[in-house]
Each structure stands twice: as structure tokens, then as C-alpha cells.
Amino acid sequence: MGNTNIDQNLAGFSDSAFIAAVTIYLLALAVSLLYYSQAHLASEKRRERAKVLSEVKANAAQREKVTVGAGAGSDAGSGVGGRGVSDDDARGVSAAGAVDESSLPETLRADAILKRVNRADKLGGVTQALVWLAVAVHAVQVILRGLAAGRFPWGNLFEYVTVVTLFAMVISAAVIQRKSMRVMWPWLLTPVVALLFYAGTNLYAETAPVVPSLQSGWFPIHVSTVSIGGGIGLLSGMASIMYLVRRAQPKGKEKGILGAIASPLPDAAKLDALAYRTAVWALPIFGLGVVFGAIWADAAWGRFWGWDPKETVSLITWMIYAVYLHARATPGWRGNKAAWINVIAFATMVFNLFFINMVVSGLHSYAGLN
After folding, report:
1. DSSP string, 294-363
2. How is residue 226 annotated by DSSP?
């Protein structure tokens, strides 16, 4: 039930924690972008090195053919097609086929590339640490908000966005532990920072008791379940977006601006697996949230379902996730087709979060915006 006594001190601390959390998330985003650029440069240098090594070894092999031909009485100054191969063409390749690192440009030497990779890894570690710090401050903000109001802290759209993004970041930080997956942070932090910034500047509401219609035991059960499902859906949807980018720019064949953006990303298979595994959890959890909402609706309004705009779009979102999982397991639909369905599910969830709450009037219009 709602508490009419608001602790203004705790409310103020909660607001300060919100600002601090957003600031740390922004810092983490900045470091992650620097990390991403370093990972891109390291990837490019590895590609250049591989190309140079391939050319050097090819020239060495051609030189060996010419030498053999000369020993058999052939013209040592001509190779295939009559093109001569000088000693410089095979420079840096030993008799055993090993490449002399000193013969390569300094930026393409193994130790230089390793240093660049280590530098990028350190930035990735800093990003991970900043994310966990931001998550901790974010959690404190949500908890203080609830303590200040004496209720569960998701009674309006501002609070709901902070809770959904908190769950999304906790789940993402727990999932993204491997160094190879940390390049995903710019893709995940960008929507979270955007959501929190928009919530703080356009959706902010003073700490207050919940409206009478939300004073029910089903309030924390329904909203928390939907929030967890939404947080998982955010991670799954962004993984599918990254997967589509990676599929458009296969590893090692990146071209143009999109290729530069895609080059640090993990393999498409890893991104597809992440999108699928998280959606497997999002579907039942989000579905339970819809069911709990229906039970609450029956207790509050005397019917389980009334085709209210928000509950209708929530059902549609859940159905799209179900279609995605089915498509993902169906030959002919795996890959890009299934990924696009997951992206549509994610977009529908965001549409439900903002447009339905802010523009369309209905029984869920408790955000004070419509």
C-alpha cells in the first residue's frame, strides 16, 4: 500500500544518486567508445599484417621456384610470366619459412600489435569496472527512491524506466564478462544512457505516493516481472542488431564506414547465440508479467482482459518474441530473418514503453503524461 509520508532527505539522496549514476554511465560510454576504437585499430593492424605476411611468403615461394629453375638451366632472372623476383621481394623470410619481424613495418610487428591489444583490453577492463560502479549507484538510487516513498519504486514512468534500465544493466554486466564480448558495451550503454537522460529530463516526477489504482499486492509482482523481461529484451534486441551489422560485414571482409563500425564486434554466431539465449528467458518472464497483470486487472476492474492499449501491445510484443524463437529454430528462417523479428519485438516493447504511455490514453495512463 502507498505511504503518504515522504522522506524528503532520502528523496534528495535518490535524485543525487540518479545524477551520479547517469554521469558514471556516460563516463563508461566514453571509455567504451575509446576501447572500441582501439579494438578496431588492432583489428585493422592484424589484417594488414596478415596481408603483408601473405605477400612476403608468396614472393619467397616464387623466388624459390626461380632459384630451382636457375639450377636446372633456366633463366634465373625470369619467373612466371617472365617477371624477375629480387632478393628484396623475399626479404624477411628464413629458409624455414619464418618471417623476420624486423623486416616488417614497425606498426605491423607482433609486439606492436600485442601492445595495442593490451592497451585496448585495459580500456575494456576500465569500462567493465565503471559499468559495475554505475550499476551499484543506480541500484542505490532505486532503493532510496522506494525507501523515501515507503513503497516499491516503480509507480510512474520515470521510476519504471530507471528500474527497467537497472535490470538491463545488471543482466548485461553479468553476461558480458569475457574480454571478447566487452566490445558490446557501446551498443548497450548508448540506449541505456539515452533512456535515462530522457527519463531525467522529460519524465521526472517528484517522489510521491502511488495513485490509488496501484495500491495492490499485485503492483510489485506485475511491474517487477515485466521490468525484468523488458531488461532482458533490451539485451536480446541489441544483440540481434549487432548480429545484423556483423552479417552485413563478415569478419575479415569489412568495408567502408559500416565495416569500420563492425570490425571489433564478435563473430555473428556468438551474437546470434546471445540474442537467442536471452530471448528464451525474456519470453516466459515477460509472459508471466502479462499474466500477473491480467490477474490484477480482474481483482481491480472485474475482468482479466479489456483490450486496453498497453496490455494489448504487451501481448503483441510477447507474441512477436514467440514468433522469433520459433523462427530461430526453423530452417530457412534462421539468420537475418529471425534476427529482424527479434528487433521488431524490441522496437514494439520500446513503442509500448513510450508512445502508449505518453500519447495513448488508457487504464495504464498513470505516468502523468496523458
Report:
1. HHHHHHHHS-S----HHHHHHHHHHHHHHHHHHHHTSTTTTTHHHHHHHHHHHHHHHHIIIIIHHTS-ST
2. H
Question: Look-up: residue for cell 514512468?
Answer: 157
pLDDT average, residue stretch 79-103: 48
Residue 226 CA to residue 152 CA, distance in Å, equals: 14
**CB count, 10 Å around CB of 243?**
28
Check: CB of residue 152 under 8 Å from CB of residue 1: no
Digit-coded pLDDT (tens) for 247-267: 999 988 888 889 889 989 999
- Neighbouring C-beta atoms of residue 329, cutoff 10 Å: 11
Alpha helices, DSSP H, located in the chain = 8-71, 110-149, 157-175, 185-198, 218-248, 256-262, 268-301, 309-328, 336-351, 357-358
Question: Which tens digits make up the pLDDT trace of 20-73?
Answer: 999 999 999 999 999 998 888 777 777 777 776 676 667 666 666 666 655 555
Grid coordinates representing 275 are 540474442
Q: 283-325, pLDDT tens digit by residue? A: 999 999 999 999 988 887 788 888 888 888 999 999 999 999 9
Q: Which three cell numbers stand for residue 286?
A: 515477460
For residue 92, give the 3-state DSSP assignment: coil
Phi, psi at 216, each rounded to 5°: -150, 155
Is the pTM value of this prediction over 0.85? no
